[in-house]
Structure formats: C-alpha cells, structure tokens
Amino acid sequence: MECHVYYEGDDDPEKCTARRLEQFDEATLYRTMGQVPYGVVLNPHAERALSPADADEALGTLVALDCSWESAEEAAFRMNGVHRALPFLVAANPVNYGRPFRLTTVEALAAACCILGARERAEELLEPFRWGETFLTLNEEPLRRYSECADSSEVVAVQEEYLADEDAA
C-alpha cells in the first residue's frame, strides 16, 4: 500500500511523523496539493467511515494530510480521491497519548492499513517510532473489529460501542 502525504509543514520538524516516514522511504511528501495522487484520503471531516469495502477504491494508495490539529479544518482536505474518516482510535504518540481521534499522520496511515487488511504494512510504517508498536497494542481490539466489518455502516456501529464506553467512563 503506497502512502502519500500532503505536507503543510506547520508542525515541529523534530516531532513530524510524515517527515520521518519520508526519511525511511515509507511515504512520499507533497508540498503542492495538485501533485497528490488519487486514492483514499484520510479526512476526519468525511461523511463515511473507512471500511474494508474501501480497499478497491484505495487502488493501493492512501493519502493523508500532515498539519497541526489547529489547522485541520475541512477546507484543508480538498484533495482528489475518496474521502473517508477513521473510526474511534486512541493515540499512542507522546504528545497526545491516550487521547481519542488525535492521531499523528503515521498512526492514521497505519490504522487505515489495518482496517484495509494490510497489517504488515502498518507494522512497517510504525517501525521507526519507539511508540509505534504501542499504537497497535492500544488499538488491537478496535482495529481487528473494524477490519472484520463489511462496510462503513458496520464500522460506525462498532465505533458507537467504543464511544458509549468512553462516555460511561
């Protein structure tokens, strides 16, 4: 699964997971939105959740936006492709550890790979990060359950269980 990232460059370069992915030849970074190839765009504002049914749409290509959470507004995601939101997952990165939906670029790409049935690719992406394996461990059950869903509506149903558990906690 090819990983492509539209890179805005507004994060701390020392903590930027997209730049590190590029250093390890695990992703291609683009500084112009028009250069980003067509694929499944991971977009938290998308109307549909990513599911295994999107594997055909992905054509082996995942696209992410690397920007700070402060600038991750809907307008920032105007890229060509099939837009899908990731379901409930918990961050393992040191900045947002334990916070739901606050994933780094590499966590988002790895989660998408798991949901689309490419867990080995997810492990490859996370390998350069000392907390990478922790992400897969923290989210082992939801990632497995999402990857077993038939479509977006099933993913949303599973997500609602996790959100109900969060609200009860």
UniProtKB/TrEMBL annotation:
Enzyme Commission number(s) from the entry: 2.5.1.157
Keywords (A to Z) from UniProt: Cytoplasm, Ribosome biogenesis, rRNA processing, S-adenosyl-L-methionine, Transferase
UniProt superkingdom: Archaea
Subcellular location: Cytoplasm
A Pfam family: Fer4_RLI
Catalysed reactions, as listed in the record: an N(1)-methylpseudouridine in rRNA + S-adenosyl-L-methionine = N(1)-methyl-N(3)-[(3S)-3-amino-3-carboxypropyl]pseudouridine in rRNA + S-methyl-5'-thioadenosine + H(+)
16S/18S rRNA aminocarboxypropyltransferase Tsr3 C-terminal domain location: 40-163
InterPro entries noted in UniProt: RNaseL-inhib-like_metal-bd_dom, Tsr3-like, Tsr3_C
GO MF term (any one): S-adenosyl-L-methionine binding
Family (UniProt): Belongs to the TDD superfamily. TSR3 family.
HAMAP family: TSR3
Protein name: 16S rRNA aminocarboxypropyltransferase
Organism, scientific name: Natronococcus occultus SP4
